[in-house]
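Hey team,

Filing this mostly as a record. A colleague (T.K.) asked me to run one chain through the structure pipeline before their review meeting, and I want the input and output archived in the tracker in case anyone asks later how it was produced. No errors, nothing strange. Just documentation.

Input sequence:
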Amino acid sequence: MTEYVDTEDGVRIAYDREGSGRPLILIGGAGQFRAVDQPTRTLTTELATRGFHVVHYDRPGRGDSGGEPPFTLAREVAALRALVAMLGGRASLYGSSSGGAIALAAAAEIPGIEHLVLWEVPLGEEEGSDGREFLSEITERVRSGDRESTLRRFMDGMPPEWFDGMRNGPDWPLFERMAPSVQADAEALAWTQSAPRRQLWAGVTAPTVVLVGTTAFPFFSDAADAIVASLPTAERAELTGSDHGWQPVDLAEAVAAHLDGGAERRQSVRLSGSCRRRRTAGERSAASVSAANSTPPHIATVRSPRAAAIGTMASWPRGTAAKDPSSS
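Output structure:
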């Protein structure tokens, strides 16, 4: 059942919650919201059965949540602040893709963040300028009101059939409505380049695990190592997954192992093969060569971390179009 909480500036945030136990908020990446994101809905149930009180919400401007452009990183943090307060002032955060950058920003500002779990955050070069330039391009398109152009630019670098599948699918009205909200994703990624990361994330004290797929794009592996190098409380682990995707049962087990199971359970998960230890430098190098030699043609065309942040939504199950909340 959908519930609502209002941010300090009056934006209504829609969410589902399931289970009881330690509170955990799931933060979607670019293109993710409840109406089209069945994998995360399944993940919510899997985590609830493992003893968590799980909140799966629509970010501002998406699904049943309110808000009007411009969508900013500050408004994303405000939504999370309201959700954490609703949960009693303490919660762990799971951030998917660019949602991981939002989770880091929130953890740097909001008291009571107990743990972070980050999935394949698409970071650019530390203190690079490409994120700022990309944000400027997205902002210009949002201001013009051209929602299709906004999503096309965000997905530039992905196989064109991925956008075409989304554009011609039954859920296009939902994606078109949420298009301006990717400005917040672009800003979150630009923020991660805005200062030396040790300085930028000095306020992040929560224990953090950075998860990557066993056959992740190389830039996700590099980004995971960069986060671990910049956060004294962070560790890296690998999860069975590819093409920026995961299986809900595998991810739920990995999240539970790192948040609630302690060292003994983490070791059990590693031995089972669903979550692996951080690789050595030699292993990372060998894995990169292997990935380059075995990458499928449609994935070989991926040219940027930002594009991968949204591209997988084109491959999600379509089914019957969900009701567009903007039409009611």
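Quick notes for T.K.: The longest strand covers residues 234-242. Residues 262-303, 311-328 have pLDDT under 50 and may be disordered.
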